[in-house]
Design goal:
globular; 9-stranded mixed beta sheet; alpha/beta; UDP-N-acetylmuramoyl-L-alanine:D-glutamate ligase; Carbohydrate kinase family protein; single chain; about 300 residues; 4-stranded mixed beta sheet
């Protein structure tokens, strides 16, 4: 099975634990610092590859050291990065995340080259050849909101390709700009805040039903420590989170998407796919960074 991940590519620099930012020129000694491939496309690509999928990732990065590093990190995890476009006039998107002792993650973020991605960067042959396409962060790669690209997604779906979508930001203007994609995908996986912004509904079930009305076959609203809510046109299920020690929540949503899509590609029901997503997210939550703890599918499923 070949999965194409398309959208936001980010380099994360993470440090933990950080109780508060030091003042002046003070230095705080932390236990751990890591650099990882992240973003709703790159982070999900790494997780998908770790779960045994063949993955090609497409996005825009800078023609800079961070872009080189991101390519190395993704390649090391088994992702084909030949679809990355290098931009001489923009830096690679990057975030610095001081991780709190409870796993919370404020961030400093430079959006960089993600904002320059356009549909012209996507090889139509890749869309046609993929068994699945994951749109990661179309709210920040708004250059993909192109009628010809949306028509290509529809053609891929008509031929049997599964299309999933996850968002990156919580910013209302960006999220509402990405609504155009909802009628061209099969499965949407927002977090609780994103679902509320998109629909105006704070109740996750009502928000999921409103998103379903725009076209997808399933909506999964991730709820952090409360697990997730899976909604289809026929049923709604609450899927509890797994009881694991939480180190860092960075990348949990990306891992959930990867687990969900991996199960769908194996022909499993939506509810079982949500359980796979839950287990993948729980694995990542136990370490620092979006790839923490992800070794292979068997290790993830062992949590179930």
């Amino acid at each position: 099975m070949v999965v194409l991940t398309l959208g936001a590519h980010i380099v994360d620099v993470l440090a933990r634990p950080v109780d508060e930012l030091p003042g002046g020129q003070d230095t705080v000694v932390v236990d751990e610092i890591r650099v990882t491939a992240a973003g709703s496309a790159a982070g999900t690509a790494v997780a998908l590859a770790r779960l045994g999928n063949e993955v090609v990732s497409v996005g825009a990065v800078g023609d800079d050291d961070l872009g080189d590093l991101l390519g190395v990190l993704m390649t090391r995890h088994g992702v084909d990065v030949s679809g990355l476009v290098r931009r001489a006039d923009a830096q690679t998107a990057a975030s610095v995340l001081p991780i709190r002792p409870d796993g919370g993650r404020p961030s400093f973020h430079a959006p960089g080259a993600n904002l320059t991605l356009t549909a012209n960067a996507v090889d139509p042959g890749l869309l046609a050849a993929a068994d699945a396409i994951h749109l990661g962060g179309p709210d920040v790669t708004f250059g993909l909101n192109d009628p010809a690209f949306l028509a290509s997604l529809d053609a891929a779906r008509a031929s049997g390709t599964v299309v999933t979508l996850d968002f990156l930001s919580n910013m209302p203007d960006l999220l509402h700009g990405a609504r155009a994609f909802l009628g061209h995908v099969d499965h949407v996986l927002p977090n609780e805040e994103q679902a509320a912004v998109l629909t105006g509904e704070d109740d996750p079930e009502l928000a999921a039903r409103l998103l379903l009305a725009e076209g997808p076959a399933s909506v999964v609203v991730t709820l952090g420590a409360e697990g997730s809510l899976l909604a289809t046109r026929e049923t709604v299920h609450r899927v509890p989170a797994l009881d694991v020690p939480v180190v860092d929540t960075t990348g949990c949503g990306d891992a959930y998407c990867a687990g969900y899509l991996t199960a769908l590609l194996r022909g499993l029901p939506y509810l079982e796919a949500a359980r796979w997503g839950t287990a993948a997210a729980a694995t990542v939550a136990q370490g620092l960074g979006s790839d923490a703890g992800l070794t292979d599918l068997d290790a993830v499923l062992a949590l179930l």
